[in-house]
Amino acid sequence: MLKSQYMTSCSILRDQRPEENNRNWLNLPAELMMSILQRVGCYDVLMNAKKVCKSWHRLCKDPCTWRVVQIRGCVIQQNLKDKIFVCSKIGEGDVLQKMAMHVVDLSCGQLLDLSFHMFGSDHLLQYIYQRSSHLRRLRLESCYLNNTSSSNPVRHISSKGLIQMLENLPLLEELEFVSAWISGEVIEVAGRCCPHLKSFTFNQGSVIFPLFGESDVQAVAIAEHMPGLRHLQLSNNLMTITGLRAILKNCHNLESLNLRQCYNLYRALDQEPELETILRKQIKHVRFPNSSTKDYESGNYV
């Protein structure tokens, strides 16, 4: 479908008959063209968009085009499914990693907003922070995070690798972990090394991690090390009333708090209605454990 759209764009650009083409696509503002390319997706920009015309080819190499990057592993894997090199010894994980590194190179240090989905490694994180120290937003979704180094370095991100990255992103303002697990130490380092952090999302994701038991490790770490947060999402979390009280006590600047699907808080808030009153008075926008999830992104639970 995208390919046909590019072919249509090419024909429009080459068609100079005013009665059929009243818009000069070559004269669109560069900012608008960059916005269009960012919406097209990383894979299609690298593999297809640059072939549309010389103007688009130049834009695809412009570092400003790569300030906001989203790399979805499942989408790229689907696009590459029939490619010969994927069936070779290279492997999909290596292809994704090399593509991400290429994008970082194209940004020339101007990368500000990075999201990646279903892939990642310590080596990739190191490659990113060594070349993108001005990063303002980082989102890891459905990435396999664990506490130790893995025998499969292309597919796993260790807590150590993540901590090293956060120690080198002093300008970070937004940090998101979706359908992933992180330790309290990761939160501590983020709070200590990213003083401008204003928004934090941590969603374990019930699809990957069954929500049984109780744990206030992450909630207490947030309360102790991220007191300046303005926006906090802890949906699908195992926190108890203890963790919630710690957050309310220390995070006085919170403007929004998402507690949806935090099952341990259902009964606790019913038993302590005064706490719900405090939540409503202290925080402008609150999503309670039983709030509707109809507006959730598919599989994201945020």
UniProtKB/TrEMBL annotation:
The record, for InterPro entries, names: F-box-like_dom_sf, F-box_dom, LRR_dom_sf
**Pfam families membership:** F-box
Indicate the segments forming the F-box domain, all copies: 22-69
* SUPFAM superfamilies noted in UniProt: F-box domain (SSF81383), RNI-like (SSF52047)
Report the protein name in the record: F-box/LRR-repeat protein 23
Lineage, top ranks: Eukaryota, Viridiplantae, Streptophyta, Embryophyta, Tracheophyta
